[in-house]
Amino acid sequence: MDMSILTANGIKKAYPLPGGELFWALKGINVEIPAGKLTILKGRSGSGKTTLMNIMSALDAPTEGEVFFDGQSVAELSEAQKTKLRRSGIGFVFQSVALIPIMTAMENVEYALRLAGWKNGRQERARECLEMVGLGKRLSHMPGEMSGGEQQRVAIARAIAHRPKIVFADEPTGELDTNTALQVVRIFKELNSSQGVTIVMTTHDRGFMEIGDKVYELEDGEIKGGQ
Fold first, then answer.
1. DSSP code, position 217
2. What residues make up the domain containing 90?
3. pLDDT for res 117
4. What angle do CA 36, 113, 93 make, to 5 degrees?
5. What percentage of the chain has pLDDT greater than the value 90?
6. Could you give phi then psi for residue 23, rounded to 5 degrees?
7. Adjacent-strand bridge partners of 200
8. Which of the residues 27, 37, 61, 67 has the least number of beta carbons within 10 Å of its own beta carbon?
9. Cβ-contact 42, 49 below 8 angstroms
10. Which residues contact 107 (CB under 8 A, 6 or more apart)?
11. Rounded to whole angstroms, how far apart are CA atoms 208 and 59?
């Protein structure tokens, strides 16, 4: 039986509409994220998967329900504690890579380590993470000198550099061709097995359903299926 690093119970999220009505983006979601595995949140645009991910990663709060991270209720954390959790316990990968264009691959990863409060050996750790994602020969390249897939791999190296307990990847393959997207997902699987990193990834691509250790399919703010 897999140990869960994160559980979300009865998550509902409402947004006010102009007429005073409420739009329920999430309608009572229960998920369990197994430690050291790849969990996929699948659904088309508007299904609620990004809203759910933002709540699980402490970027947003639910209207109802509770998230437990490593057994700790996120709702009971102060804003300062939530910020610390996001900086040190969580890594983020987004669809738009958002690398700093005037920094090399190495400097981008190093900068993330500095933000996370990593004191010593930043260069060594940055190099190690870039080698993990297959970019050992691209350390001194600028983002503009790299393909989209390579940039996304730098973003993954940046996300795992401070040894987070969990990485949230929101549509990380959304702007990549199928072959490059598959390479990115294979890197995630390799990080699961070699580093024990827990990864939660959103996608609308049905092709990745087989690859996830656990898959939740969302539709209109509800879980419709999974494996």
1. E
2. 4-226
3. 87
4. 50
5. 72
6. -105, 120
7. 39, 168
8. 61
9. yes
10. 100
11. 25
Name the domain count of the chain: 1
Helix (H/G/I), strand (E/B), else coil: 210: coil
- The residues that bridge with 215 in the sheet, in sequence order, are 40
DSSP β-bridge partners for residue 166: 90, 198
CATH number at residue 123: 3.40.50.300
Q: Edge to edge, what strands does the sheet with 214-219 contain? A: 90-94, 166-170, 198-203, 38-42, 214-219, 222-226
156 near 95, Cβ under 8 Å?
A: no
Name beta bridge partners: 69: 6, 72
47-70 tens-digit pLDDT? 999 999 999 999 999 999 999 999
* Spatial distance between the Cα atoms of 95 and 49, rounded to a whole number of angstroms: 14
pLDDT category at 226 given cuts 50, 70, 90 is low
Mean pLDDT of all residues in 83-89: 88
Q: Is 0.85 surpassed by the pTM of this model? A: yes
Residue 208 DSSP label: G
Kindly give the pairing relationship between strand 64-69 and strand 4-16: antiparallel
Q: Please report, in angstroms and rounded to a whole number, the separation of the first and last CA atoms in the chain.
A: 15
